[in-house]
Amino acid sequence: MSAGVENTLNQLKVLIMCGIVVLIAQAVNLKGGLDIVKSSCGMAIILAVSMASIKIKERLPFQIPAFAWASLLSLLLTTPWSPVQQLVLDTTSQISASQIGTVILAVSGVSIGCKLDDIKKLSWKIVLTALVVFIGTYFGSALVAQMILKMQGII
Amino acid sequence: MSKKVEINKELSTKGRWPVFGKLFTFLAAVCVAAELIGTISIPLGSIGKMNVAPMIFAMIFAVLFTPDALGRVAKGLKNVCSQEEVQLSENVVMLILLILGVKLGTSAGPNILKIIEAGPALILQEFGNLGTMLIGLPFAMLLGMKREAVGATVSICREPTLGLISEKYGINSPEGLGVMGTYMVGNLFGTLFFGLLASLAANTGIHPYALAMACGMGSGSMMTAASTSLAEALPAVKDEILAYAATSNIMTNVTGLYMECLIAIPLSNAFYRFLVK
């Protein structure tokens, strides 16, 4: 088996396992109201698009992350002009971003597990500065957007 | 392309199924616990309220059981979550983010006309990212930082910035250390912080659409935390929030690097010289 194929298979295996955990979180969140067959189909579609975005990113020379490709591809699949819009929207309707978020934050929680010592090394100055930076970015963007949307009369 | 492809050993399942099994069982358990707790709303008097979403609990539980946290005290925890699982999880983050990327795209697609209509705001709010430096740079210098301040406040310092600054100044330069600092803080606290910040921002009176656009900062995990907790705080416009956040994030991913290279870094240097005087 060539390295490329093996990598692809491994990525697929991990994605499937992630998908299952997301469905479990979703089932708990909906307290048994999850349509398992429909949502599994939805998850299969999501995983297929995810795989496609990894491959696009690997093949194209631009520095655009796979994450951006993933949302761009599925945006195109669900525009009103797409023949599969209804299929994709129906099957994925019960899989919500919040529960995917729960699993993502659990994974990122584990992933910083061996870096807790680095926290102690960071001086309080850089921590404070970074938090000010985050607040500045967030509200800077929000205020500009607010201004333009007002000018356009959208809000 | 005939680039030699190497096997990514970290993701290889060969002989490592127990590691995968343990990690994913652990993740499932953490997520079930977090979802059972559900969203907790903390009233903050006149400011409004702060929603603590299940994902925040999931992250806290997950960190607690890692080798560096409770693993230090209870050696037995190594059987649940050891260094191997932590390393695997670093590789899993990038993949599971794609699932979210796809889901967010499906919120944006049906709303494509609304998004095109809001196009000018989506594009121009990218300049809002310069707010980082306008507030951050003087603040960092007040705390006594020098050239480190330029690196630390040039943007929210994700991987592209790290690459850019280390190419321009070197990663061991003061500027490089600054970027590294903000980058690390972002890795450690970014998701947690933005999750809480966005939920608080829902009380500021800024329109939900504008807040949603601000969530797309170029980091998948921070955008997730910010946009989903904003959506939980304002369920009536949930779809629009996710749609604007996702599109804004695509935009930042595409334009962010050029924006930093051509505008943010030169501006930051000029502002630094002005402040030193």
Q: What is the radius of gyration of chain A? A: 20 Å
| Main beta-sheet strand count, sense and barrel state of chain A | none
Biggest interface: chains and residue counts?
Answer: A-B, 103 and 141 residues
Helix content of chain A: over 70%
- How many separate domains make up the residues of chain B? 2
Low-confidence stretches of chain B: none
Oligomer: heterodimer
Give the structural class of chain B: mainly alpha
Q: Helical element count of chain B?
A: 13
Strand percentage of chain B lies at under 5%
**Helix segment count of chain A?**
7
Distance between the termini of chain B: 52 Å
Main sheet of chain B: which strands, in order across? 1-2
Q: What is the typical, i.e. mean, pLDDT of chain B?
A: 85
- Structure class of chain A: mainly alpha
Shape of chain A: globular
Helical residues, percent of chain B: 55-70%
Contiguous runs where pLDDT drops below 50 for at least 5 residues of chain A: none
Strand content of chain A is under 5%
Largest sheet of chain B, if any?
Answer: 2 strands, antiparallel
Q: How does this structure look, described?
A:
Chain A folds into 2 domains: 3-114, no CATH class; 122-155. With 155 residues, chain A is mainly α. Chain A has helices at 3-29, 36-59, 66-77, 85-92, 97-111, 116-121, 124-152. By secondary structure, chain B is mainly α. Chain B folds into 2 domains: 9-96, no CATH class; 112-276, no CATH class. Helix content of chain B is 69%, strand content 3%. Chain B contains 13 helices and 2 strands. Chain B has a two-stranded antiparallel sheet with strand order 1-2. In chain B, a hairpin with a 5-residue loop joins strand 1 and strand 2 (49-52). Chain B is globular, with a radius of gyration of 20 Å. The termini of chain B are far apart. Classes of the chains: A mainly alpha (155), B mainly alpha (277). At the A-B interface, helix 1, helix 2, helix 3, helix 4 and helix 5 of A face helix 1, helix 2, helix 4, helix 5 and helix 6 of B.
